[in-house]
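Ticket reopened. Same input as before:
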Amino acid sequence: MKNILPLFFLALLSFSFATQSQAQDADEVIAAYLEVTNGAKWSEFSAMRMTGSSVNQGMEFPISVVAMRPNLQKVEVSIQGKSFVDSYDGEVAWSINPFMGGTEPTKKNEEETAEAALNNFEPELLNWRDKGHTVTYDGAEEVEGTDCHRLKLVKANGDEEYYFFDKETAVLIMQRSYIKSGPMKGQAVETYMSDYDEVNGIYIAFTLEQKVGGQTFMQMTAETIELDPEDLTKEAFAFPEK
Amino acid sequence: MRSNLTQLLFTFLSFCCLGTLTAQEPLSVSFGDLRARSIGPALMSGRVVDIEGVNSDSKKVYIGSASGGIWYSANGGADFRPIFDEYTMSIGHITVDQNHPDTIWVGTGEPWTRNSVSVGEGLFRSLNGGKTWTKIGFEDSERISNIIVDPTNSAIVYVAVQGHLWGPHKTRGIYKTTDFGQTWEQVLYVDENTGAADMSMDPTDPNTLFVSMWDHRRTPDYFVSGGPGSGLFKTTDGGANWTKVTAGLPAGKLGRLAVAIAPSNADIVYVTVEAEKKEDKGLYRSEDGGATWTFVSSDFNVTVRPFYFSRLVVDPVNPDKLFKCGLNLTVSEDGGKSWRTVGSGVHSDLHDVWVNPNMTDMVFCGTDGGAYRSLDGGYLFEMFMDLPLSQFYAVTVDNAEPFNVYGGLQDNGSWYGPSASAGGVANRDWDISNWGDGFHSIPHPTDSDIVYSESQGGNLVRHNKKDGQSKDIKPIEEEGDPDYRWNWNTPIQVSPNNPERLYVAAQFLFQSDDRGNSWTKISPDLTTNNPDRQRQKTSGGLSVDNSAAENNTTIYVITESPLNGKVIWVGTDDGNLQLTRDGGKSWTNVAPNIPGLPAFTWCTGIEPSHFDDKTCYVTFDGHKQGDKTSYVFKTTDSGATWTSLVTDDIEGYALSIREDLESSNLLFLGTEFGLYISMDSGLSWKAFRNNLPRVGVRAMVIHPRDNALVLATHGRGIFILDDIRPLRQITAEVAAKKLEFLDLGPTYFRLEGPSAPFGGSGNFVGQNPDTDAKIVYYMEKRHTFGKMSMDVYDSEGNLIKTLPAGKSAGINIVSLPTRLPMPKAAPTNNRMALFGSVLTPGLAEGVYTVKINKGNEVYETTFELLFDPKHEANYPAKDRKLARETQLRLYNMTNQLGYIYFMLEDMQKQAEMRVADVSKKKDKELIEAFAREVEKYKDGLVSLEGDFYVDEGSNIREDISTLYLGMSQYPGSPSEGQIRKTGELEGRMATVQSKFDGFVSRMNAINEKLVKLELAPIAIKTMEAYLEQ
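Engineering reply: fixed in the latest deploy. New output:
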């Protein structure tokens, strides 16, 4: 769940269809993507809040996600007054899981914290050279019936991700990454984006669906997305010291 | 701009013209959310051919299977997952570059070349521990038996190509790269019949290698191991020069050899030799790096079936301890002089051993029946129970509820198991009906106790499930008959028109109307009866291998037309396709009428149409003659003329075909590389990959009641497409629509019993069918911009749910949980009470309306939700009604209490704020007292203390939910006590409501004061607003 946030922003789009060309290399695909996503405007923002609902295994829960530059993130799911929290405040990654670890906030271990620190408020493909990443055009692939360009991103730390852009609209419709820790380490997670809509002039995917092995385990639909909400401060992410 | 406009106009006009030809156009539609599910089984597993570990982190283990891909464990075998499902399932060898353990080389194509072996597609490499793979080359190599990475230079890799099994080929021998796979040099080649079967590198000198070259060939009717090309070769200069090692080894022709240099002492080398003379066959040992050899053992497991069991593994630290894969695993600890055979329930037919170099008592082995792990150096082994590598040859179903699946497997008998089970289809759900190699296994259509099963060579039995007894019912030669020739995989068939009629075939077709007790021969010899193809008894080459696997000139397929019991089609393994239209009185071989079909090509599948008894579909497979072309044909005139249905969409030789039971446009084709579906009568095909690996589909059956397509895969067990009705409805007209609903008929509430939740990891559990109601629709294009959601309304027009809609191009399936949304309950710190308010009552039976809002457009359909009629007797409508009404009373109380709790909380908080706002002491005291009283009452409604486990309290919130939890999963009438207590709780809730109303009155009175003071009144939501928030 915690890796999906940047995708809201990665999936920025304007309604320009000027880029329906058959981009054949990574730079062309990204250039088209940046052009239509209004990348310059993206740099104006440094925080966001999303509220909506999440469907897991047929049950619907209210969800809220807040994030802040450079890598702060907090996901909160509420089940009848019980809060499930997953947060990273820049130093400490912590969670509350009433069904597994009681109702008290619990700090994560070193490996999980390191993974949480990899969250990036800014989409990985934006200014990817400055981040030390490598991006290559990796061929074409059909994604749920849609022909896509596939880009391969190798991050500075060696992590690999794949991005799938609809050939017809240049829109990002899927991202494939790999679970980095725990018993499912190495498993591919596919995140599908849809319902792009406008927020502060930028088009953002309002629905995300995550699948492992082709099977949906989470769908998240945003009701509201706010960029730079005034009442959001760093304290919102902090580990609640007693 | 102008040119763009012209082009657009041209495109538009072209499209219009094409529109008139729609009926002729291929219909290719994405399968979208239509997914296959695997039900295993994994309890007998399947053939494991190679095992590789990571030396620096020996919890990481890779298992290569004969036809089920590669499985990876990160935890020493606690669980496994597949990592190679997009490629050929036939694995030859896996090699980890131990200096860069994320680099994995995989040679595909099983080297253990039994009659049913699959084919590889070359060499692959992963640089990220198996997440992604790149094909490096050798596409046409068919089989790769070994790969060795130079431990001093990862750019240098040797690949042993065993090559083609069924014909001569030049891509064989040893290949070497010095540039990490960019270029390859063939450094050892003998001839086009001789492949590299094994390879071992000197651990102290990477330029020294031993290689065994193997002269061998298979045909449909014969196998030869051994010839002039076989031999042991050695290089000491990295492959530039090779010496054939002969001194001390047997003279004459050699067959398959295994070779292994002891990792801890490079002077000690072992080789097992298949030789011409029986007394020469056995294990040879060298103590001088291969210069001289001593014969040390002719133990049975050392010499048995070299083509299938030539793997020799020397312990990493003890040069005298070695494992030889044979019929059983055998272990020597004295350099091969004496052997002990491993028992402990390990499946026979061993193919590989891996010894953990960091803990040499940990030994893995791979067999025809899965993989095992020993922790005591190879005495006792435990089996991995989550490798669903089962190699089915055939599949049938019965009419039980849920239906059972029947089939036989390579070296693993015949089994049946349910298509659904509480908690998922687990290993324990399966039962065996016959042992040996299993093939066709067919339930009697009307007597649920009876199963017809067989083992290799036509050994047919009638098995009684009730008492476990089996009667041998194989036809026996009558006086004057020639010997019957039974295929390894002998066809049996139950008539679709007469449940008591059974067929089995040798070279003749036999019919029984008394469950196999007696048989009538209803055909002459339907094969070519070519004596040149009847050599089973001498098959094998240097080691006779007379197992029935090469029985030839036999019948392989029998099918009776579902429309006409006198129309029977028979296909043979030597290229005949015989038809009778008079119940066997006369037969015609129609194979010569098939254009483009080479003579003697094996007939693998026949599907007489369900709509016309002159129409039939057939598949042929020539790969055992070296021809891997796909052959699929259709006739509409009883075989007089045929049309090929093969298109470029299809990969792999064809193994099975089915025509849908309701739509003649819908065809299913199984090939060595997976499932293909045509929705336009075979004009075009599309590979189905949604959760189905690229595995051989040997057989299929469509369940006539449940509309499920059941696939027998040879390597990954049984897969089920639960509902093919959407595919039946895809037509050219539908495909041109922006969005079109597809009808699945009513959804039935399913009942599921409890399942055993424990047992640890590593136990395979197959997925159950999804019991949610499903909204299915086709979309021409993916939805990307603007909101698209789905609203569900009950029969009175109330909105009950809003769901995310499916957005894919092609078929979208949106699952609608058949339960009400969660109530908006008051908080609790009582675990069971929380469960009780999370699990909600089922939706009412009835008709629902679904509206899809896609941008500005609205698409509407309905669906019906019904109770499963087969459970009606146990749970009659009046009981279900009472259950639901009682559940709803508690559900509504939960919402009511939630409202009261949160409104009291709001009242309290606002009152506390107003205390500061008012100035008069009396007013302050009044409001403060009100706040405290509200708080106290509110806190008494719920239990928030305790540990959420075993130190918990219970107030009315918890009492409601725990009572609800007790009845929520039961479809029938609640108990007297449950109904009584529901009434009591309603009484208590009336008191709570009355108390709340009292607080509201007092709040209103306070508000009058606040208004007079020009302060904002205390405001609370209405119940409606609360529930909608």
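Confidence is low (pLDDT under 50) at residues 1-23 of chain B. Chain B touches chain A through 49 residues (CB under 8 Å). Please confirm and we'll close it.
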